[in-house]
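Bumping with the actual sequence this time:
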Amino acid sequence: MAVLTFEGGLNEQDLSQVNPSECIEGYNFELGAKDTHYRPRKPFEKKGTAPNASAINGIMQLQKIDGAYSTIVQSGDTVYEWDGASTWTSKGTVDASSKLRGLSWVLDSYLVITDAAKLTVVKKWDGTSLTTLTTGLGSTLFARYAVVHLGRVWLFNVKSGTDTPHLLVASAFENPESYDTSLRAKDSSFTTGSEAFFMVTPDLKPVNGVAVFMNQLIISSEGGHLWKLTGTDSKDFAWIPFYSGSYAVGTETMANIGDDIVYMKAGGNIESVVSTDRFGDVKTDDLSRWMRTTVKDFSDAITVYDQFNQKVYFFASSTKVIVLFK
């Protein structure tokens, strides 16, 4: 019976301790928890090059109710519609340093587009045109994050004239083009519960992560806590503490990975929210405990869940990607 040992990369010890038959150099290999042998990891495949040859800062895809797809790509200061092959059609311009992210509003078949860098106002893509989203707040609303939850679009870490990273605005029920920054949740004037409203983080720290998991909306405050939303409508929404020791860092490290939420905390540790919720702040909630040396200097990453291949990618820099096998 073959025996696999892991003295090498897993615990980052001296390579002289590695069994000569194990893979420590050369090709990039994968080893899953239930595998009995190494498998060469498939490389990232080049799919296309934007006409302006600028950095790709955002890729968004809309699927309409009728099944039609469209893909738009932010390359530098230009947003292109891309057919997945060789045709790139310019659809508008944005700030070149923007990091556009798309959220699907299925009910009316369009994307609500936010900017993780808060340099481009909230946009709308309907499969044909890229326009500024109508919000009722003028044309100067910026937002870092967006989610759909309980029939509303929620925008977090927003700016409208004044930068208010600790503030979120929630649309009116089933109307992502109606927002209000004058009335807070639980306002006494609310009668139907469908009204638009705003909320702030309880510790007044910037929102630096958002995820919907098991129908629960969870947010992170920068260097602060995790908070969970309670309530069902504008008359009773409130934040309650979920985990007081998160100290999450970065701007896009938090993500729903299907059966858990992960995020990065100070020191580069990649944490499991489910383990923390069940067992508290214990060693087993640190998914990166086997690679402390690798992650110790990380302060940010773009976390992407590949549902098809059951992998989570942490793009920590232009040259380093951490891959979590589920």
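The tokens above came from a reply further down the thread. The first helix runs from residue 273 to 279.
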